[in-house]
Write a structure and sequence with these properties.
11% of the residues lie in helices and 32% in strands. By secondary structure, it is mainly β. The strands form two sheets. A five-stranded antiparallel sheet has the order 2-1-7-8-12, with no helix packed on it. The longest helix has 7 residues.
């Protein structure tokens, strides 16, 4: 799974990287690098608008399906298993119609480290995963819109998203059995094309082919300190490698 990541690159740079429309400054005016993004944080994601142009938006990390009656207060849907997303009620509407790319600089995972002299005899070592080429990671995501209609007047629309996961590749398997779906630039257009324009949507058969483990050679893994375990910690020091 993917439960923590970094968002360091500015919205303008993200838009340029993904060949998206210049982002709305009113939406991102208070942007600051986030070195420890946690669930329910508003994060940057890229989706096609109704004219087919790519746009960078803010989405709550934790998908809230449109049919939700009451906004959940715990266990947000931050990940969706790619193998079952087509059948799960929470994701089956978004997969064909609302796909996005989630821009991250890197993500954290925790691997179990056996230490014979400790009780219990194991601990969790955080690691930071990035691309070897230093570029942004484009994670495959789903998005949804929801609003509370239970009150006297409807609430503002909530835009939310989740990250699709797949089985781990050779780089990630010693750390965890799952990893985010990472898409290469040649696949972005197909992933984002959900048929909102006159262009036919990418077939579900093709979408399924895209939801595969990334090539193991593109990723770099570095052990980092345990300060990242607490979401209260948020500084560049969290990314410093440990021996």
């Amino acid at each position: 799974m993917c439960g923590r990541f970094t968002s360091i690159t500015s919205p303008t740079e993200v838009a340029s990287f993904f060949s998206a429309v210049e982002p709305n400054p009113n939406l991102f005016g208070d942007f600051a690098p986030n070195y420890n993004v946690a669930p329910t944080t508003r994060i940057m994601a890229i989706a096609n608008d109704q004219l087919g142009a790519r746009r960078v938006g803010l989405f709550q990390w934790g998908l809230v399906p449109s049919w939700t009656k009451v906004l959940p207060t715990s266990q947000p849907l931050i990940n969706a298993r790619s193998e079952t997303a087509r059948e799960k009620p929470s994701f089956r509407e978004s997969l064909p119609h609302r796909r996005c790319l989630i821009a991250v600089d890197g993500f954290f995972e925790w691997r179990t480290v056996d230490i014979a002299d400790t009780k219990p005899p194991a601990t969790k070592q955080p690691v930071y995963v990035t691309r070897r080429d230093g570029q942004l990671l484009a994670l495959a995501g789903l998005w949804a819109t929801w609003r509370d209609t239970s009150g006297p007047s409807p609430s503002p629309w909530l835009h939310s998203c989740c990250i699709l996961t797949t089985s781990a590749n050779a780089t990630m398997s010693p750390i965890h059995d799952r990893m985010p779906v990472i898409l290469e630039s040649q696949d972005w257009s197909a992933w984002l094309n959900t048929g909102r324009t006159s262009q036919p949507a990418t077939s579900m058969a093709e979408i399924v082919k895209l939801m595969k483990p990334a090539d193991a050679s593109i990723l770099s893994v570095a052990a980092v300190g345990t300060a990242v375990n607490s979401i209260r910690n948020n500084s560049a020091d969290l990314l410093l490698p440990v021996i």
